[in-house]
Write a structure and sequence with these properties.
- One of its GO terms (molecular function) is sequence-specific DNA binding.
- Pfam families: HTH_1, LysR_substrate.
- Keywords: DNA-binding, Transcription, Transcription regulation.
- There is one protein chain.
- By secondary structure, the chain is of the alpha/beta class.
- The protein has 2 domains: 80 residues, Winged helix-like DNA-binding domain superfamily/Winged helix DNA-binding domain (Arc Repressor Mutant, subunit A, Orthogonal Bundle); 218 residues, D-Maltodextrin-Binding Protein, domain 2.
- The strands form 2 sheets. Strands 3, 4, 5, 6, 7, 8, 9 and 10 form an 8-stranded mixed sheet that branches.
- The chain starts with 7 loop residues before the first helix and ends in a 16-residue tail after the last helix.
Length: 308
C-alpha cells in the first residue's frame, strides 16, 4: 500500500522554515503570513505524529527527527527546483540578487539602472526578502544581508560593504512633544518602535552604556522600513541606520534624536566562493560600494548624547 503523503503545502512550509531557521523568513519567501506558516508546521507534526521543531530563543531549532526529515525533504525539493529549471525554455542569462527589503527599497532601487547599464547582456533580478538564499540549489547568485557579526560557510565568501551607524529618529512634530533628552536613558520614557523583536534597541542601549535595562515595550513591525515609516507618521521613536533614512533626514521628514555614534553590524555581500571573481559579481560589488559610499558619519564610535 502506498504511503499517504502529507500536505505538499505543509511540506513546503517546513522546508522553508528548516532552511531559513525562521518562521518570519519562511513566510516572507512564501508570500504568506507567519501565522499561516506556523499553522502548516503544526498540522504537519500532527499528521506525522512527530515533533519536528522546537523553540530556541527567538528562532526555531530542528529536533533530531526534524533534522532527519529535513535532509530527505530538502533533496526532494532540490529535485523539483532542478526539474522546473530544466523544463523552462532557454532564457537570457540573469543575475539574481537577494537583498534585505529596506535596503532594496530605500537605497538600491533608484540606482539599479547603473548596474543594468554595466551588465547589458544580463537580466538583473532584484528580490527583496528576509530569507537567505540556498546557493547550493542556485536560488540566487548573490545576496546582500545585514548582520551584527557574520561567519560564512566554507563555500561562501562574505565581504563587508559598509558598517552601519544606527541612531534614534522621529518626526519633527513628535520630537517637539518629547521632554528634553539629555542621555540615552531618557529615551526609555519615549514610545519605542521595534522590528521583529526588541533586540536592536537592546543592543543600542548596551552600546550607549545603559545598565539594568528594563523590559522594552512598544509595537513590533517586523521590517526596518515599516518601523521607519511609523516614525515618519509620528507614532514613536525608531532605531534606523543612515542608509535607510538619508533622504528623510535631508527632507526634514525625520530628525535624529541625540548625537550618538553607535554601530551595529553592517551590510555584507555574500556569494559562492567559486564565483567571487566572476565579471558580473565584480561589477555588482563595485556598484554596491558606489551606492553605499555616500553614507556619512563613519567615524570612531562616540557614546556622547547631545542635549536637544
Amino acid at each position: 500500500m502506498t504511503a499517504r503523503l502529507p500536505s505538499l503545502v505543509a511540506l513546503r512550509a517546513f522546508e522553508a522554515v528548516a532552511r531559513t531557521g525562521s518562521v518570519r523568513a519562511a513566510a516572507e519567501e512564501l508570500a504568506v503570513s507567519p501565522t499561516v506558516v506556523s499553522r502548516h508546521l503544526q498540522n504537519l507534526q500532527l499528521d506525522l505524529g512527530a515533533a519536528l521543531v522546537e523553540p530556541r530563543g527567538r528562532r526555531l531549532k530542528l529536533t533530531s527527527a526534524g533534522e532527519a526529515f529535513q535532509a530527505k525533504v530538502s533533496r526532494a525539493f532540490d529535485l523539483l527546483r532542478q526539474a522546473t529549471r530544466d523544463a523552462r525554455p532557454a532564457q537570457r542569462q540573469s543575475l539574481e540578487i537577494w537583498c534585505t527589503p529596506g535596503l532594496a527599497n530605500r537605497r538600491l532601487l533608484s540606482r539599479l539602472p547603473e548596474l543594468d547599464a554595466q551588465l547589458q547582456d544580463w537580466d538583473i533580478l532584484l528580490q527583496p526578502t528576509l530569507a537567505h538564499a540556498n546557493f547550493a540549489t542556485g536560488e540566487a547568485d548573490a545576496e546582500i544581508v545585514y548582520f551584527y557579526d557574520f561567519a560564512p560557510a566554507a563555500d561562501l565568501s562574505a565581504e563587508l560593504l559598509a558598517p552601519t551607524r544606527v541612531f534614534p529618529v522621529a518626526s519633527p512634530a513628535f520630537r517637539e512633544r518629547l521632554p528634553p533628552l539629555l542621555s540615552p536613558e531618557d529615551l526609555l520614557k519615549a514610545p519605542l518602535l521595534h522590528e521583529e523583536s526588541t533586540e536592536n534597541w537592546e543592543r543600542w542601549f548596551e552600546q550607549m552604556g545603559v545598565a539594568n535595562l528594563p523590559e522594552l515595550r512598544g509595537p513590533r513591525l517586523w521590517h526596518a522600513h515599516v518601523a521607519i515609516e511609523a516614525a515618519r507618521l509620528g507614532q514613536g521613536v525608531a532605531l534606523a541606520n543612515s542608509f535607510l533614512i538619508e533622504e528623510d533626514i535631508a527632507a526634514g521628514r525625520l530628525v535624529e534624536i541625540g548625537s550618538s555614534r553607535g554601530y551595529l553590524g553592517g551590510y555584507y555581500l555574500v556569494v559562492p566562493t567559486k564565483r567571487r571573481r566572476d565579471p558580473q559579481i565584480t561589477a555588482l560589488r563595485g556598484w554596491l560600494k558606489s551606492v553605499l559610499s555616500s553614507e556619512g558619519g563613519n567615524d570612531a564610535f562616540n557614546a556622547s548624547f547631545g542635549s536637544q
